[in-house]
């Protein structure tokens, strides 16, 4: 969203994304990043580069097709680098870009928070079921 | 996941969630929290309590049904409180629990990061399209 109050000559300021606006491009990026497999793929790549098949084993339960689509979206948005390494047979390695590493570290923080607070979540779920 | 190496007598330690395991309950919670509308509902409620209709206006584009399902899942997991205020007609207000506030502040950090780096994302998307 461009704020009409900001002068167009200041490109750094004239660009203001607002994820609450349905048409804002940032919403789509947030959804790639936080999507079912985007979160797990980024969190796995925060551990280090992965080849496709190893990443698929790490992200337990993802199909080949879904992981491939997820990585393509993350590569398109500049969060993941795909490198073809010279070898026989050629190896393809996925790693985080600097932007991807920043995003992934936030996601890992979120995951660690939720993992550590699961006893509270499970208590809440039991109380909710018992109502 | 219970780690067999940890003594069962230490309840705080015996519980170790691992979001990478497909059967771990934490994965479902992460997916509620980071889901299409979960993220936006939590980020909106980080601004303060909302009544249903005001929240629906804030989360531009969400249907009544999807917002209602999202809030129900967040309430079940102990992230959102639903309070019926005595008034004629009765008012229903949604707010974050302390756990919900912790989760929401991580999400808001993630959203702000993505919003601020959108020029980089858009550059990456243009390069990807041009290949």
Structural domains of chain A: how many: 2
Q: What is the 3D form of chain A?
A: globular
Secondary structure: number of strands of chain A? 3
**What is the CATH class name of the largest domain in chain A?**
Mainly Alpha
Gap between N and C termini of chain A: 44 Å
What is the CATH superfamily classification of the largest domain in chain A? Winged helix-like DNA-binding domain superfamily/Winged helix DNA-binding domain
Question: Element order, helices and strands of chain A?
Answer: HHHEHHEEHH
Q: What topology, given as strand order, has the largest sheet of chain A?
A: 1-3-2
Would you identify the regions of chain A where 5 or more consecutive residues have pLDDT less than 50?
Answer: 1-14
The name of the CATH topology of the largest domain in chain A is: Arc Repressor Mutant, subunit A
- Indicate the mean pLDDT of chain A: 87
Oligomer: homodimer
Rg measurement of chain A, Å: 19 Å
Beta-strand content estimate of chain A: 5-15%
CATH architecture of the largest domain in chain A: Orthogonal Bundle
Task: Give a quick account of the main beta sheet of chain A: strands, pairing sense, barrel closure.
Answer: 3 strands, antiparallel
Biggest interface, CB < 8 A: A-B, 55 and 55 residues
Structural class of chain A: mainly alpha
**Roughly what percent helix of chain A?**
55-70%
How many helices of chain A? 7
Keywords (chains A, B): DNA-binding, Transcription, Transcription regulation
Protein name (chains A, B): Winged helix-turn-helix transcriptional regulator
Pfam family, one (chains A, B): HxlR
